[in-house]
Amino acid sequence: MLRISWVSVFLFVAGLSIQAAYAVTPGEVLDSLRSEAEKSTAGFQGFSATRGENFFRVKHGNEWSCTSCHTENPAATGKHAKTDKPIDPMAPSANAERFTNPKKIEKWFKRNCNDVLDRVCTPQEKGDVLSYLLTVK
Amino acid sequence: MFKIYKRIPQVVAVAVLIMSVVMTAAHADDDNDEDHRGADRGESHNGKYSGEALGKPLQPAQVNAKWKQECSNCHIAYAPGLLPAESWRKVMAGLDKHFGSDASLDAQENKEITGFLVDNASNRWNAPTAPLRITDSAWFKSKHDSHEISPSVWNNPKVKSPANCGACHTKAENGSFNEHDVRMPK
For domain A25-135, is the CATH number 4.10.320.10? Predict the structure, then answer.
């Protein structure tokens, strides 16, 4: 009987840690982007929310900027530029689910950077933008 | 008398068996009625679909969760029965350039969703084409020509695009395009 309950406890804890491996905080995402940037960006000086805000607002040679869908206010609900479908706010202060799912973060950075810049974004660019979004109240 | 008592278990068993067969048949009848009613309420009044007697819904009652989640991010998850299998294969093979946007999925997600779309694709497609856009199909055009829909409807900012099914088809997300559910926005 004792053995069975220890097995259940083990499975329960193992289950919790698997969940923990998939759910992250925006701060942890920023940390992991920082360690990527340290490796890939020569003379990396840290992230800048100001640079991130500028990156978020300007066009990068294509028709769309980040704000085309996410609006000028990342704490507001956005709207898909083509379909008008509502998009939940990007700022973690307004939307607790943002930047908590690594798979989703990777998927959407890839898609949106391709749409806005015709290329993937660098860890520096992603970290700047996330730093900016974390400053939005 | 004694012999009959001895047989009671068999009699009960046979009765239960008969009842279950009858009930199953009744259920099957119900389902068929539903299907026919659905088809009749839908696009029965002309022969353009030619296959609606097959009674296959545009969207199965049980949908794939990944399909629903991923395909409804930017637009409604279009019902699998709106295009033939070949169209879905092409759409899903070109998601990195999906009508001007990158909508790429990882290999596992792509495979699962493609399977659902192909398995439930249109079985009433009688044109020799497999368009990428639902709105490019002959049946879409004939159903939405200027006799049916005034040009002012298309120009309404609430409609914005013919791809925006839900602007008028209030149950589009459930794969239902019944004419009785159409509400043109003012």
Answer: no
